[in-house]
Design goal:
mainly alpha, about 0% strand, about 240 residues
């Protein structure tokens, strides 16, 4: 990991309008939970806000924006060639950017989910799920989306297709597809850390742990491999 590259990646996220959107998403989620609780006068159902909106929509979008923001724009405008021309391993470049994207995504996602639990008046047991599941999901999404942003100039579109089609459609109606769903894997980890039953009963804990480790390693390796093959002519 290179501190200079990490600092530049963090500045790229916080110095653009993308940073405002990153913060706005978890803030809106908390505001929605608080508003619903005020309107109905009772605790908000976790399935509606926490799972369907927070974990299924806000967390992957935050991770997608963060991962795409630390690498995607440089590939799009060709400025990545200047970074890759420095005597720094391209795997170090990829891992440095991934750490920044993952750190921002985890921080905002966990903060948003914890705030949602508190604002919605949910049971305290959901705080554990918010920390474990929210943190794991943001970390794994960041690994996947960092690899996609390095592998293709259309990383944002590819990420949206994954979230909407694989997780939002296929994994919802085909139970076997949940084994390819980052959200389901993260929920299994959260279920193991709490006394709550989440909708991933058919997935074993050992699979969730192994799949998480594999995705983290492959995400960084694929991003580094793609950067290593990037042509310095700037024709991409």
């Amino acid at each position: 990991m290179n501190p200079t590259i990490s600092r530049l990646a963090l500045r790229a996220l916080t110095g653009q309008r993308r940073g405002l959107v990153l913060i706005a998403l978890p803030v809106l989620l908390v505001a929605l939970a608080g508003t619903l609780r005020a309107l109905v006068g009772e605790p908000v159902a976790p399935g509606a806000i926490f799972l369907e909106v927070g974990l299924a929509l806000v967390v992957p979008l935050v991770a997608l924006l963060a991962a795409n923001g630390v690498l995607g724009p440089e590939i799009d405008d060709g400025s990545v060639v200047y970074l890759l021309s420095t005597p720094v391993s391209r795997y170090v470049v990829a891992s440095s950017k991934f750490v920044v994207a993952a750190g921002v995504a985890v921080l905002l996602s966990v903060a948003g989910l914890v705030g949602t639990v508190l604002a919605g008046g949910m049971d305290d047991s959901w705080l554990t799920v918010a920390v474990v599941t929210g943190g794991a999901a943001a970390l794994l999404y960041a690994a996947l989306f960092t690899a996609l942003s390095a592998a293709t100039r259309h990383g944002m579109i590819a990420g949206l297709v994954y979230v909407l089609v694989v997780e939002g459609l296929l994994a919802r109606f085909l139970s076997g597809m949940r084994h390819l769903s980052v959200g389901s894997i993260a929920q299994r980890l959260g279920e193991a850390a709490s006394d709550l039953d989440l909708p991933v009963a058919e997935m074993s804990l050992s699979y969730a742990v192994i799949a998480s480790l594999v995705l983290l390693v492959l995400g960084a390796l694929v991003a580094g491999w793609r950067l290593q093959r990037f042509q310095l002519r700037g024709d991409e």
